[in-house]
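Reading a protein record of the kind used here takes only a little practice. These numbers are not coordinates but entries in a learned vocabulary of local backbone shapes. Here is one such record, which you should read through line by line.
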Amino acid sequence: MRAEKLFQDFVAYVNEHQLFVEGIAAADESRVLLEHHFVPDHARNIYSHTKSYMATAVGMALAEGRLTLEDRLADYFPEYVPEDPDPRLLQITLRDLLTMSSGFGHAYLMGEDRRKGVGFPDYLTYMMHLPMEQTPGTAFEYSTADSILAGRMVEKAVDENLAAYLYPRLFRKLEQGWPQWENDPMGHPIGGGGMYMRLTDMMKLGQLYLADGKWKGERLLDSRWVREATGRQIGTPQTDPEDIWRCGYGYQFWLSPYPDAYRADGAFGQITTVFPKEGLVVAVQCPEWGDFAKVRLALHTVFFSQL
């Protein structure tokens, strides 16, 4: 099997070049096919890979008729809207948040900011009083705050904590258990980061999407959501000409530069890439202190571009 040889070639390359990789695994929609750990397997912070889990909650709530992509942030939280608000603030929809095009125009509430206490104690109050820079829906600006706000909209729509909502519908179904998950100062799970998972547990989300929303024969996600969430919804302006992985964005999923491929993507290299044409999911986890640019290049040249 070609994928197995490429997998082993990548493992050998990592060892030869001493790249910082913790583990890599490959699967089809139902089982793990290949797995290699360079360090002992453990649940680790998957950072923004969490965003794709939050988006999955959106897809489930949509299917249940609890919300729509055109629902407006200000309508969900009118008590947070400042006096004499910027009209653009009132226009922000769930779709805008999912496509990182809220209009705030900057990266807010990223991990380092949260560690510093930025936005304490209430992220909604903090975000609703920031200046708007753009018309919502018009410009991509990657920001964990957009994911956090989207997660809060889900919670409001379903009248339930985001983790509690996902547990019986996703985590328990995928046998992932109750994940350790960073909460904000008010006790809400961070919709944009802070979830901890082992490599093959993290990869299960990609397997679910590869299977068009089914897990062990049971439909967990609407197939239309799978297509829309992982399809190109907005362009992603190129900031680094050598970064071929920045090639479009769906609903909290990145597009990848391979036929129909897409990925859930967390900082420092917590990546699950889905290759629908090959019927394959490949997941990798990396440490915070490595050089993921080198790992990404190796994944591309040694493995992904050769599939």
User: Anything to note?
Assistant: The chain has eleven helices and ten strands. The first strand starts at residue 23 and ends at 27. The two ends are 11 Å apart (CA to CA). Residues 2-17 form the longest helix (16 residues).
